[in-house]
Write a structure and sequence with these properties.
Elements lengths: L2 E9 L8 E6 L2 H13 L9 E6 L39 E12 L5 E17 L6 E6 L8 H23 L13 H11 L4 H8 L4 H19 L19
Parallel strand pairs: 1-3
Antiparallel strand pairs: 1-6, 2-5, 3-4, 4-5, 5-6
InterPro entries: Lon_prtase_N, Lon_prtase_N_sf, PUA-like_sf
Protein name: LON peptidase substrate-binding domain-containing protein
């Protein structure tokens, strides 16, 4: 088993390989992370700026900065693990995704605008909160195609196109982005998982599927069920096929 140690960025969303993640970084712990990433890999360097994204199971994406309810005198938590309890490992889902930050732009107020892309799934082994931000020991996971992934991908693409049409009808607009849909099974599985209007636990389930075929089978069932539901729900939100919602960290 080979592991890597990377900065850890917990979010209330799931990042999939190949998908773009915009971040608005304003908390000091994550500002420190971005400063270190830029220092280790300047703009003229070819070295990737890698950190790991995990979905939060129990905790707060943004730590409280001021006293509030129920105790107005309580001192807000500080430090790398603020908002995640005494054992941060228990606050996060165990399967996450490495992100490569192509753009890290510092604003005048010291916050950062970041554009990252998911690359590889990882298994979270341990979390270290001793520094200015969380770091984690991670095992990179290979993508197993499973059985009949190609045929399943074709079925999922057909179901996804039908799902898109239903969404467009519910919104009374077109969801077409002008982009070609992929045909490589693992890429299809991640794109559909990210683009479908699903809650975080469901997206997390898809991320941690044991192989591509299993993920595609699950998606086929979900798309058929969601398409049937949309017929009676005229106001579902539209989605972008490659970009997740901007996180306020």
């Amino acid at each position: 088993m080979t592991t890597v140690r990377l900065p850890l960025f917990p979010l209330n969303t799931v990042l999939f390989p190949g998908l773009v993640l915009p971040l608005n970084v304003f908390e000091e712990r994550y500002r420190a992370m971005m400063r270190d990433l830029v220092k280790a890999s300047p703009d003229d360097s070819d070295e990737p700026r890698r950190f790991a994204v995990v979905a939060i199971r129990d905790g707060h994406e943004v730590a409280p900065a001021e006293p509030g309810l129920p105790d107005a005198t309580a001192v807000p938590e500080r430090g790398a693990a603020a908002g995640f309890g005494s054992d941060p490992l228990k606050s996060f889902h165990k399967i996450g995704c490495i992100a490569d930050a192509a753009t890290i732009r510092e604003r005048a107020d010291g916050s950062f605008e970041v554009l990252a892309t998911g690359t590889t799934r990882v298994l979270l082994h341990s979390v270290d909160a001793s520094g200015p931000y969380l770091t984690a020991e991670l095992e990179e996971l290979e993508e197993d195609p499973g059985d009949e992934a190609g045929a399943l991908a074709e079925g999922v693409l057909r179901a996804f196109r039908n799902y898109q049409k239903r969404l467009a009808g519910a919104r009374e607009r077109s969801l077409s982005t002008g982009a070609e849909l992929p045909d490589e099974p693992s890429v299809v599985s991640y794109l559909v998982a990210a683009a479908a209007v699903l809650d975080t636990p469901t997206k997390q389930r898809l991320l941690q599927a044991p192989d591509t075929a299993s993920r595609l089978r699950d998606e086929l069932k979900l798309l058929r069920a969601e398409t049937a539901v949309i017929r009676n729900l005229p106001s579902l939100p539209a989605v972008d096929l490659t970009r997740g919602p901007t996180s306020m960290n």
